[in-house]
């Protein structure tokens, strides 16, 4: 059991903080009561989120002092505090504001802002979205104009107001902000700036700054999502993050490489890759809550349990599949960073791969977390009651599909990629490449039913056939005289998204297989992999049959795995899966024995 937990723990945590965490756990075990400030009081947060927020920030400050004492000069655990207790409150300060500076700033800029952030002298937000421009980043209207060694920042209309950023509403003193930038009359694209917005002690808005909370919303009770308007706000030239594009005091613009903007964006993908794990862990916590609440009834067989067990099993397996597959994507991201450092030409191609994998996985894991939490409410005996904790989690999970890239928009980027791949191959001389290269195995066949060897083959064939058919339909719309706009937006959009989703699930299956192989085979991991394949196949069985890939009987042969699970086996396996991570709030997936703090009594 611990082996499984350790496996998940090891692939979830950054190597840099693992040793610090281990030390932390040792210290905690010696004197747990010294750490009781880590315990959350969810009730007060629900009743008054602002007070809850202040309470949490005080706890953070305390934790900060303690961490600094233990790890002087070491920064990882400070920035990754959410691994210890809270995911919500200062998440954006540590995981969006600061990383943006670390990735897009020069070493001097990073040092400067990092020191201030670690000391809580400043608290930061991440302001990209505008009231009128979310997915359409190129349409951003906030402007930055270079003038006298400074930039003048403006939000020229209501639709240019920054809208939604977490922490902006009440507590942020600064924000990173994207703006269309002009230097000596020349548009140099969207650049990122650090903007002071409030006086740190009084939290009073600075001159020219119109900032506030956007008000009550579904979920995210602890996050003070806000709006921000700027009128002729002058900031120092050095507040533009200049790792890739520099502007000197005379307005001379230099870019370190012609791919600078792309690479700047590439560094930011780190956030998306890490969100896949966040969504999946949330999915697992949610499932655990539902499972622990329904378990006594399952054990006594007092309710019809076959369907419940299957739904729980599916949720567990999908979330683990995402985490395990994401470990491969993390590796590709690390490769991209190494190639970037070494000025390797391959960096471009690797970047495209990270972009595609991470946007597919962000979307699928977001959708799956919402699905899991909705199911959990239905499964738990008092799921709809706030006391079950599940309603709060559900509300927190719902926006996963929207922020950090709307899922339907992200999926259409995969559709564009697929279209390019099919376009290239339709000429007759080229082959599928990159993540679509497995399609080459099936191009010569005319879809006759064959003896299917394994799950991977059935999923690959499903993915190839669905994508091929969708891309052909799209091309036919063009051939029949419809415009590009109408062929994409009006006639084929839903199917283009659906094809990309099937392609995405197949990629997760394949990446997970590769990860299990590279980490040494383990029976339980293989079982999770098999079950993941099984669920995806069963959910698409009508499509599989209608494409002539297999008949119902063949699909059922693969589905026999399900009969190998008697109800007792299912329960045993559920128990096993529930132990891979701990409970929401107890955070025992990092092996801290929270019971020592009498946590239950405090809840
Ligand atoms: C809880 C929460 C927290 C957030 N935190 C932050 C933050 O800290 N910082 C920040 O900058 N932003 C934040 N956001 C904003 C978030 O990133 C945006 O909401 C998101 O990018 C989508 O933009 P939008 O809301 O303008 O919707 P739109 O982009 O306008 O999308 C609306 C609908 O139109 C569809 N659509 C849009 N474009 C297309 C297209 N080309 N083809 C087909 N369909 C399309 C979408 O699928 C969606 O259904 C947050 C949002 C939420 C809900």
TrEMBL record:
Family: Belongs to the acyl-CoA oxidase family.
BP terms from Gene Ontology: fatty acid beta-oxidation using acyl-CoA oxidase; lipid homeostasis
Main location: other
Top-level taxonomic group: Eukaryota
Keyword annotations of the record: Coiled coil, FAD, Fatty acid metabolism, Flavoprotein, Lipid metabolism, Oxidoreductase, Peroxisome
Coiled-coil parts of chain: 435-462
Cofactor(s) needed: FAD
Main EC class the enzyme belongs to: oxidoreductase
The protein's Enzyme Commission number: 1.3.3.6
Ranges of residues in domain Acyl-coenzyme A oxidase N-terminal: 43-122
UniProt keyword Signal present: no
Acyl-CoA oxidase C-alpha1 domain mapped to chain residues: 307-419
UniProt-recorded name of the protein: acyl-CoA oxidase
Acyl-CoA oxidase C-terminal domain span: 452-559
A GO CC term assigned to this protein in UniProt: peroxisome
Organism: Paramecium primaurelia
């Amino acid at each position: 059991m611990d082996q499984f937990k350790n496996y998940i723990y090891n692939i979830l945590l950054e190597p840099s903080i693992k040793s610090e965490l281990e030390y932390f756990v040792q210290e905690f075990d010696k004197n747990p009561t010294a750490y009781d400030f880590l315990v959350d009081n969810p009730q007060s947060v629900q009743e008054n989120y602002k007070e809850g927020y202040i309470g949490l920030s005080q706890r953070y400050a305390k934790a900060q002092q303690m961490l600094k004492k233990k790890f002087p000069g070491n920064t990882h655990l400070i920035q990754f505090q959410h691994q210890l207790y809270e995911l919500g409150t200062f998440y954006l300060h540590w995981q969006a504001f600061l990383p943006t500076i670390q990735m897009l700033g020069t070493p001097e800029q990073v040092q400067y802002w990092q020191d201030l952030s670690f000391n809580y002298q400043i608290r930061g937000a991440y302001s990209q979205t505008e009231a009128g421009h979310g997915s359409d980043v190129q349409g951003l209207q906030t402007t930055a104009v270079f003038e006298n060694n400074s930039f003048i920042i403006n939000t020229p209309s209501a639709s240019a107001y920054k809208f939604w950023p977490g922490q902006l509403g009440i507590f942020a003193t600064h924000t990173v902000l994207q703006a269309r930038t002009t230097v000596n009359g020349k548009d140099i694209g969207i650049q990122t700036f650090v903007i002071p917005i409030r006086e740190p002690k009084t939290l009073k808005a600075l001159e020219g700054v119109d900032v506030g909370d956007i008000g009550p919303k579904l979920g995210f009770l602890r996050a003070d999502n806000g709006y921000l308007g700027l009128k002729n706000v002058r900031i120092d030239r050095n507040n533009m993050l200049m790792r890739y594009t520099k502007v000197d005091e005379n307005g001379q613009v230099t870019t370190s490489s012609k791919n600078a903007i792309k690479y700047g964006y590439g560094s930011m993908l780190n956030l998306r890759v890490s969100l896949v794990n966040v969504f999946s862990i949330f999915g697992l916590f949610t499932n655990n809550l539902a499972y622990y609440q329904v378990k006594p009834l399952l054990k006594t067989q007092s309710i019809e349990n076959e369907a419940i067990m299957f739904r729980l099993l599916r949720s567990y397996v999908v979330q683990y599949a995402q985490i395990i597959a994401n470990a491969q994507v993390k590796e590709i991201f690390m490769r991209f960073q190494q190639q970037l450092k070494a000025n390797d030409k391959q960096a471009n191609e690797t970047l495209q791969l990270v972009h595609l994998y991470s946007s597919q996985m962000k979307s699928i894991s977001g959708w799956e977390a919402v699905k899991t939490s909705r199911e959990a409410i239905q499964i738990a005996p008092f799921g709809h009651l706030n006391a079950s904790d599940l309603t709060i989690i559900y509300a927190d999970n719902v926006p996963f599909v929207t922020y950090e890239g709307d899922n339907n928009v992200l999926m259409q980027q995969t559709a564009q990629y697929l279209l390019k791949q099919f376009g290239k191959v339709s000429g007759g001389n080229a082959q599928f490449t990159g993540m679509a290269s497995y399609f080459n195995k099936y191009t010569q066949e005319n879809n006759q039913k064959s003896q299917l060897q394994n799950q991977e083959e059935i999923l690959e064939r499903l993915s190839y056939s669905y994508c091929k058919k969708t891309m052909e339909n799209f091309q036919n719309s063009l051939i029949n005289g419809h415009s590009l706009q109408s062929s994409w937006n009006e006639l084929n959009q839903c199917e283009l998204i659906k094809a990309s989703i099937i392609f995405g699930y197949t990629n997760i299956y394949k990446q997970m297989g590769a990860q299990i192989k590279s980490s040494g085979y383990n029976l339980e991991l293989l079982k999770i992999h098999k079950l993941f394949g099984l669920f995806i196949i069963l959910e698409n069985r009508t499509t599989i049959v209608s494409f002539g890939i297999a008949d119902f009987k063949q699909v059922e042969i693969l589905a026999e795995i399900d009969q190998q699970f008697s109800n007792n086996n299912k329960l045993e396996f559920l128990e096993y899966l529930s132990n891979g991570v701990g409970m929401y709030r107890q955070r025992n997936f990092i092996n801290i024995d929270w019971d020592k703090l009498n946590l239950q009594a405090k809840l």
